[in-house]
Amino acid sequence: MSIIIRVLISIIVLFILFIVGSFMGNRLFNRSVENEIKELFSRTKTKSTIVTKTDIEALPKNVQRWLEYSRIVGKENILAVRLKQKAAMRLGTDKQWMSVQAEQYFTTEEPGFIWKASIKAAPLIHIAGRDKYYDGKGSMLIKLLSLFTVANSKGKEINQGTLLRYLAEMVWFPTASLNEYVTWDQDDGDTTKATMTYKGITASGVFSFNDKGEVIKFEAERYGEFNKEFRLEMWSITLCDYKELDGILIPSSGNVSWKLKSGTFNWFNFEITEIEYNKPLPY
Question: Using CA atoms in the order 263, 250, 103, 169, what is the torsion angle rounded to 10 degrees?
């Protein structure tokens, strides 16, 4: 057997091992996250109440207008959420955009979420990501090819960041804004500050509304990791393209940016392609 043939066989074998390893890693990763989703949903009640006009009348006027616009009055209180998302993300202003396919799961009585993503870094190369907020604590797990751990972040900064993410993403399940862990400042025209407190962690952000009653922006000081250290920076989400999905009118797309001293860094753009309420099951 010639050297060229042996080299070709070796390359083919390595390629097959690469594909098989990536497939098995992805399968194990998905199974692990699915178990976490089931644990998250295990705390959800089986029955929900109906949201009434009385439930929202003590809120600031612009928040009331948003909730009425979203069509939650007369609907079931949302206890569980599952959604699908497609997105593009980048890790730096000089980095390429990568396509993302994601699923996300929320609970509202005891606030929590799990975001599972597959990020296409290059042809045949994917990154598996899982962002989690559970029992007041956050964690971010990132694995190259679903096998090799790149990051497994935890701690007080992650706890604060995931709590703020939950607060911002309530725009997709607006009845959560009625829970006791969220408080609202008085009406300030087109903006209102919301504060979320849960399991000893408190953080606040500002919701901006337009004349229709749509939430068009959320901003908060959030911990982020920059140059391998955590610090508070302004985190901003712009929201648009309101659509009725599963009976609720929500923003279906938007972009996420950090407002840094060096300038605005837009790093994540998303679109919600599917959402279901009170169906506490993994996809």
Answer: 50
User: Could you give phi then psi for residue 171, rounded to 5 degrees?
Assistant: -60, -20
DSSP letters spanning 165-183: HHHHHGGGSGGGGGSTTEE
* Among 218, 222, 197, 221, residue whose Cα is nearest residue 209: 218
Report the SS3 class of residue 195: strand
- Report d(CA 228, CA 246) in Å as an integer: 41
92-148, pLDDT tens digit by residue? 999 999 999 999 999 999 999 999 999 998 887 889 999 999 999 999 999 987 777
> What pTM does this model have?
0.92
Please work out, in degrees rounded to the nearest 5, the angle formed at the alpha carbon of residue 109 by the alpha carbons of 107 and 111.
Answer: 50
Q: Which residues partner with 137 through β-bridges?
A: 134
